[in-house]
Design a protein that fits this description.
Length: 652
């Protein structure tokens, strides 16, 4: 067991199950064995520039690049001197090939309406909308803000921006007017694109109304394009607001893709900082595009006949990289669903899989825990035999949830790729490869080729095998963030200052004796009990492995003797009763699974946990509640404010 001084984190998770890739899957996979993976990884590690330079042939270049990587820490330039266009690589590159008439986007609306856009059709829409943007005065480098439901027009607008060199800033359709205005102002957005409204659990979300409020506080935004999605009443401001369909009627479908410098900004995506102001993460053109394509091919092993479904919202990085840019550059059929997983009932996702014969399904652990809570009957009603690969992203997946996913959704036959990455990394960094890696439930397994992780202690030195510490990345990679919009100092301070020469991602991790990585939670979330550092995910996983627990969050609260006491918040599975009896049982269970050190001092039962809108548990807020403090940090990303009030109430 490690002590406090070396800054290591105690590893308490015992997980020994191993799931080798199914032979049938491996036989057809791009990377079909552990040896093939290792060879590729070593090749990349030996010569990062040579490796990516060769890969870059897969993009279309208007002008060839001169240098693969120019690295002036912390600023990277990939493929400098070259010119390409992301919209070209996503669309034009497939025209004149058998993919031209293949479905690019298959879309299902929440009310059950559906649309299919082939590559050819999508190309036409994008060209037209790019001309609309030009007509509204948008030029290279201008920032366009998008606040849209999950409809094809969102992808069309993003691709149209990329086509003419405008920079998009997508704000998730659940954010408030205040949050939109903050982001518009930070980015100096010139144009806003939105819809009259969107569907969510059968209700109409008044998006335009929210945008009107935001635009009153967004002085840089000159014009606003409004898509008619639900046909609700909206107010249109003369001279500022325009209907999407009216502008499109007159637009020409002829709009060649603009040659863009490799490092031209492609998009800004805001992500919450642990305190205060959201950060505008900046991604650029060529490196991001190449990385999104290669990782889509390696990790999801997509083939031309596949229907691939990523359930994320395009308002998050997962939607950017793995609904739009990665899959389209790779020529995949990408399915997009507009609404909630439990509308009109809890079987909606499984019906969609059955209806479109989905082959690859990529979702979040928070969703999986909800499916488990809703019960197996919803899953059992549908034919899921088309599935051949499953993925997760966004949080660690507790081994028990992994097992359920494997058995109930994957029918025991589908590999699971637990993909670790961040808004900042632009694409997947660590993951099993479905045809090459034997998976361990709860581990994101191994780094992708070109990704070189290192775990360091607080002394900044590599920790011994098996010990937890800060996860860093030691070499630049093509999709890495290029900065925080308008704030180079914050970029430097946040990611490059604490561990010199390495990218500090903000997560803790450990690497086991087989070279498998285990993410242990955010650095800020670590518990320190009697000088031993414990990771949140391990305590939570121990709790979730008890049948009565649907979901759990562990945090530390100040304790005179131990430094910190372990406080846990638990939502109980539908057939179980919360109470003193269960409390005792859960303490025993944790003692058995992990040991006395991790036994919770407080167990609170709750109906729901506070989460971000992308589904991550906000442990920071729970820490305040556990300590009896008022919350002072940023709560604008909280999904449901009533959860916080309810938790405080339960306290009294
Ligand atoms: C967490 C999402 C464990 C992690 C693409 C990371 C994960 C943060 C995993 C980034 C995973 C994401 N296992 N933790 N497979 N994937 N995380 O920016 O803490 O929304 O730093 O990007 O989510 O979240 P973001």
């Amino acid at each position: 067991m490690a002590d406090e001084q070396s800054g290591q984190i105690v590893n308490v998770m015992k997980e020994s199950r191993l799931f080798p890739p199914p032979a049938e899957f491996a036989a057809k996979a791009r990377i079909g064995s552990a040896e093939a993976y290792e060879q590729l990884w070593n090749e990349a590690a030996k010569d990062i520039e040579g490796f990516w330079g060769k890969m870059a042939d897969e993009l279309h270049w208007f002008k060839p690049f001169e240098k693969v990587l120019q690295w002036d820490e912390p600023f990277a330039q990939w493929f400098a001197g070259g010119q390409t266009n992301v919209s070209y690589n996503c669309l034009d590159a497939h025209l004149g090939t058998p993919r031209a008439n293949k479905a690019a986007l298959v879309w299902e609306g929440e009310p059950g309406d559906s649309r299919v856009l082939t590559y050819q059709m999508l190309h036409r829409e994008v060209c037209k909308f790019a001309n609309v943007l030009k007509k509204l005065g948008i030029q290279k480098g201008d920032v366009v803000a998008l606040y849209m439901p999950m409809v094809p027009e969102l992808a069309i607008a993003m691709l149209a921006c990329a086509r003419i060199g405008a920079v998009h800033s997508v704000v998730f359709g659940g954010f408030s007017a205040e949050a939109i205005a903050d982001r518009n102002n930070d980015a100096s957005a010139k144009l806003q694109i939105t819809a009259d409204g969107g569907w969510r659990r059968g209700k109409q979300l008044p998006l335009k109304e929210t945008v009107d409020e935001a635009l009153a506080k967004s002085p840089t935004v000159e014009k606003c394009v409004v898509l008619n999605r639900i046909g609700c009443e909206v107010s249109m401001q003369e001279g500022r607001d325009f209907w999407w369909h009216e502008l499109m009627e007159e637009a020409s479908a002829d709009c060649p893709a603009e040659p863009m410098d490799s490092e031209a900004p492609l998009f800004i995506l805001y992500t919450s900082g642990s305190t205060g102001k959201p950060k505008g993460i900046k991604h650029t053109t060529a490196g991001y595009n190449l990385y999104a394509k290669k990782t889509t091919e390696w990790v999801f092993d997509v083939r031309d006949e596949d229907v691939y479904w990523c359930t994320a919202d395009i308002g998050w990085i997962t939607g950017h990289s793995y609904i739009v840019y990665g899959p389209l550059t790779a020529g995949v059929t990408s399915l997009m669903y507009e609404g909630a997983p439990n509308w009109p009932d809890e079987g909606r996702f499984w019906e969609i899989i059955e209806k479109y014969r989905v082959n690859i399904f990529y979702t979040a652990p928070t969703a999986i825990r909800a499916f488990i809570k809703w019960g197996d009957q919803w899953v059992e009603k549908c034919d899921l035999s088309s599935l051949r690969l499953l993925g997760t992203v966004g949080e660690g997946i507790n081994p028990e949830a992994w097992m359920w996913y494997h058995e109930k959704i994957g029918g025991g036959r589908c590999p699971i790729v637990d993909t670790w990455w961040q808004t900042e990394t632009g694409g997947i960094m660590m993951t099993p490869l479905p045809g090459a890696t034997a998976t361990k439930p709860g581990s994101c397994c191994k780094p992708l080729p070109g990704i070189i992780p290192e775990i360091v202690g607080e002394d900044r030195k590599p920790v011994p095998t098996g010990s937890g510490g800060w996860l860093t990345i030691t070499q630049p990679w093509p999709a890495m963030l290029r900065g925080i919009w308008g704030d180079d100092e914050r970029y430097q301070a946040q990611y490059w200052a604490d561990v010199p020469g390495k990218y500090l991602c903000g997560d803790n991790a450990r690497c086991d004796e087989d070279g498998y990585y285990w993410i242990m939670g955010r650095i800020d979330d670590v518990l320190n009990v009697s000088g031993h550092r414990l990771s949140t995910i391990e305590i939570e996983s121990a709790l979730v492995s008890h049948p009565a627990v649907a979901e759990a969050a562990a945090v530390g609260r100040p304790h005179d003797l131990k430094g910190e006491a372990v406080a846990v918040f638990v939502t109980v599975a539908s057939d179980f009763e919360p109470g003193e009896e269960l409390r005792k049982e859960l303490k025993l269970h944790v003692r058995k699974e992990i040991g006395a050190l991790a036994v919770p001092d407080d167990i609170r039962f709750t109906n729901a946990l506070p989460k971000t809108r992308s589904g991550k548990i906000m442990r920071r807020l729970l820490r305040d509640i556990a300590a009896g403090r008022q919350t002072v940090g940023d709560t604008t990303t909280l999904e449901d404010y009533s959860v916080l009030a309810k938790l405080r109430q339960d306290e009294d």
